[in-house]
Design goal:
Elements lengths: L1 E7 L2 H15 L5 E3 L6 E9 L2 H14 L6 E13 L2 E9 L3 H17 L13 E6 L5 H10 L10 E4 L1 E10 L2 E11 L4
Antiparallel strand pairs: 1-3, 1-8, 2-6, 4-5, 4-7, 5-6, 8-9
Length: 190
Amino acid sequence: MRTFIAIPLPKETKDLLSKLQNQLKSCGADVKWVQPQNIHLTLKFLGEINEEELNKISLVLEEMDNKISVFTVSIDSIGAFPRINSPRVIWVGPGSGDNEIKILAKELEERLNEIGISREEKPFSSHITLGRMRSGLKIDKLINGLKELTLPQQAGGREFPVHKITLFKSTLTPKGPDYEILKEANLKTD
């Protein structure tokens, strides 16, 4: 089964990000947009795992319970990988909460490595993927749209509390991925 560990987002935040997607869609670029209900912040993509690995990963998540405290994330930036003038992945990024996300991802990376899950080759970068380029069609308009797009100052959904991390199963379908929650770990409340 294909899996990943992520921070789920509240509906209000998903709604805000869907509005940002809609503004960028008006550029007409050839982008595969993440379905609003599937928007999340990935901490670790695991790929294909078997039942034995699932059990070990579930134990790691249980051990993470109450290890890291609940924190708040603010969405403060919009950009693209590898860079805004050459977008392949369109994302929004955190301001406050970024350090806590990185600590959480590092802790997960270390614990998962101890049970035989390979470490990521690239350094972790906190971001929420909005879409991926399929081709270069109207890429100039998209680049201009990204440069001109501003996040609303007082919009609901720009800040959200992180209460838990979730292990998701991802089933690829012709209509896009379908996510199923396999395990959740609550963060510590002070």
